[in-house]
Amino acid sequence: MNPYLVFILAIMVGTFILNIIVEKLNLRHFRETLPDEFTDCYDPEKYQQSQRYLRENTRFELVQSSVHTPIVIVFMLAGGFNCVDLAARSFGCGPVLSGLIFTGMLAVGMQVLDLPFSIYDTFVIESRYGFNKTTVKTFIVDLFKGWGVTILVGAPIIAGVFWFFEQTGSLAWLYAWGAVTVVQIVLMFVAPVVIMPIFNTFEPLEDGELKQAIESYAHARNFKLKGVYTMDGSRRSTKSNAFFTGFGKFRRIVLFDTLIEKHSVDELVAILAHEMGHFKKRHIHKFVLISIISTGLMLYILSLFITSPDLFQAFGMEHISVYAGIVFFGFLYSPISMVISTIVNSLSRRFEYEADRYAADTYGKPDALISGLKTLSVDNLSNLTPHPLKVWLEYSHPPVLDRIRALRNAAGSSAQG
Ligand SMILES: [Zn+2]
To answer: For the packed helices 400-415 and 366-379, what is the interaxial angle rounded to 10 degrees?
Structure first.
């Protein structure tokens, strides 16, 4: 039997089983009794609700992967990729355009497969718990906007990579890496002003107590603010968030309107101080660097496998092509990308502690950050007691109780001198 086929099937089945184990452990790890830290802001009924929300989401994810995995495996074994390739070739275009048709058809297929799940998630689960604000119209418009951005931004990048691997021989990965990196950096600068406004409305924060408090904190920290914006997150969901985006002239802090609604000025400044902490500690730069390095690694490994006849045979292909090689490589690469994402997550969790510490040290109100974090967790029905394995594999943020503990410890030790 073809070694690539054995390997890819083992990876797919293995990932599926690992996923089930992690989710089961996570469910079993849920504590029936409300943690002491939350007795002042969670009533027992709402805590029960958060448990139901967790169960329902877990079941949903398991059903989704139980449908998804077998379909992909059957499609692969039945020669589906070859059929799509023959259809793409029937247009008689060159290799780059055929590649775009091939990947485009696969992407549409994935979207169709995914659509019932995302409809159910948004309009059934999220609605049941009072989170959903997305109208059917917004949902459909988002879908088209998403495709518009994919075609305008994604397609040229993919076409570029195809072109480099078609044209430039053994150093293709290096050229492709350079090109992808340039595009990635340009996008980081322009996405907040060009792409994000396609989906949401950003408005400068209006004058008032909050703006004054933010400006005086930023001024005291010698932080040059390029703008504090509010975003109409309430258009899609009642869940709230804050984030930092863009670089240089386009650098901005964004607060969801839903966040402003539910938090005191002190909490909001503390949350913002946390976001500034990410910036001051150069966390964003470090992630960009990691992403550039891992892209290079991926493209290099890709160059080793891209035209291996055995790989094409595993997928039942009649023709060898750069574009199909890249798609198939995605299957081979998934264990490596899982390892990378686990490393990135663990780094990200460390950065969260650092940013919390920064906020507490500079704003001087750890309690404001703690109560802000608690309100966020309650409003978003976050799992307060996730299983450590789930955290290790998937969490980009530490569980909220760990963050609160770290903040209290730091406050305690600095009070003692
Ligand atoms: Zn953070």
So the answer is: 170
Residues 27 and 58: beta-carbon distance below 8 Å: yes
- pTM value is 0.88
- How far apart are the CA of 311 and the centre of ligand 1, in A? 41
Q: Distance between CA 95 and CA 79 in Å, rounded? A: 21
For 308-357, the pLDDT digits (tens) are 899 999 999 999 999 999 999 999 999 999 999 999 999 999 999 999 99
C-alpha of residue 410 to centroid of ligand 1, in Å: 17
Residue with tokens 């594999």: 393
CB 172 within 8 A of CB 164: yes
- Helix (H), strand (E) at residue 1: none
Domain ranges of the chain: 3-168+292-415
CA 277 / ligand 1 centre spacing (Å): 8
The answer to whether 303 and 296 have CB atoms below 8 angstroms apart is no
> H helices within 38-171, ranges in order?
44-77, 80-89, 95-120, 126-128, 136-149, 155-167
HEC-encoded secondary structure of 86-123: HHHHCCCCCHHHHHHHHHHHHHHHHHHHHHHHHHHHHH
In the chain, % of residues over pLDDT 90: 65
Alpha-carbon distance 341 to 392, whole Å?
A: 10
* C-alpha of residue 37 to centroid of ligand 1, in Å: 21
Residues 105 and 18: their CA atoms lie apart, in Å, by 30
Under a CB-based contact definition with an 8 Å cutoff, are residues 75 and 81 in contact? yes
From the CA of 359, how far away is ligand 1's center (Å)? 10
**pLDDT, position 168:** 82
pLDDT digits (tens, 9 = 90+) for 8-53: 999 999 999 999 999 999 999 988 888 888 888 888 888 888 899 9
- Give me the active site residues, please: 275, 356
Tell me if 295 sits within 8 A of 303, measured CB to CB: no
For the CA atoms of the chain, what is the radius of gyration? 24
Contact 246, 188 (CB under 8 A): yes
Q: How far is the CA of 407 from the centre of ligand 1 (A)?
A: 14
Residue-wise pLDDT for 207-232, tens only, equals 899 999 998 998 898 888 778 889 99
Q: Is 402 exposed, middle or buried (0-12, 13-18, 19+ CB in 10 A)?
A: middle
